[in-house]
């Protein structure tokens, strides 16, 4: 959200802090979609849902960087959050299905990896923030997502 906030309030997009805050508020819609992850995964399968969710994240974050339209940026932001909101419960469900013994340990490993990502992300963003334009910044974040895919 730091890069998105800077992008929205930049001269390229022309938004202000209230616009940026409203965009983040719309992200809650994407989070609420996580409640549907179980039903969707039972219909299309966990692996397919995870692939779709991560692909949605990657594509939406790239598209955020190529448009200056506030409505489109907000839409892509909601799609990005929705992708994450589908991916996390799907991974947890996949662990529950694949691992027969010691599920608690593997869920703890999953939690550790999530927390490790939240610890590394600010450091990574220091380097990404130094890139010359916003599209490259969004692209670098998308590359991290591509590695996850």
UniProtKB/TrEMBL annotation:
Keywords from the UniProt entry: Membrane, Transmembrane, Transmembrane helix, Transport
Superkingdom as given in the UniProt entry: Bacteria
Keyword DNA-binding: no
Gene Ontology cellular-component terms listed: plasma membrane
PROSITE patterns attached to this UniProt entry: MFS
Domain Major facilitator superfamily (MFS) profile: residue ranges: 1-149
GO MF annotation, one: transmembrane transporter activity
Membrane topology: Multi-pass membrane protein
Subcellular location as annotated: Cell membrane
InterPro entries assigned: MFS, MFS_dom, MFS_trans_sf
Ranges annotated as spanning the membrane: 17-37, 49-66, 72-92, 104-125, 131-148
Protein name per the record: MFS transporter
């Amino acid at each position: 959200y730091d890069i998105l906030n800077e992008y929205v309030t930049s001269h390229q997009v022309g938004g202000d802090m209230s616009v940026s805050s409203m965009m983040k508020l719309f992200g809650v819609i994407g989070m609420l979609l996580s409640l549907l992850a179980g039903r969707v995964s039972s219909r299309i399968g966990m692996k397919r849902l995870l692939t779709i969710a991560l692909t949605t994240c990657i594509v939406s974050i790239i598209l955020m960087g190529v448009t200056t339209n506030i409505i489109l940026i907000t839409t892509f932001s909601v799609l990005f959050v929705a992708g994450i909101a589908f991916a996390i419960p799907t991974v947890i469900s996949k662990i529950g299905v694949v691992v027969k013994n010691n599920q608690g340990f593997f869920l703890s490993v999953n939690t550790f990896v999530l927390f490790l990502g939240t610890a590394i992300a600010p450091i990574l963003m220091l380097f990404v923030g130094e890139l010359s334009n916003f599209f490259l910044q969004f692209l670098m974040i998308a590359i991290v997502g591509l590695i996850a895919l």
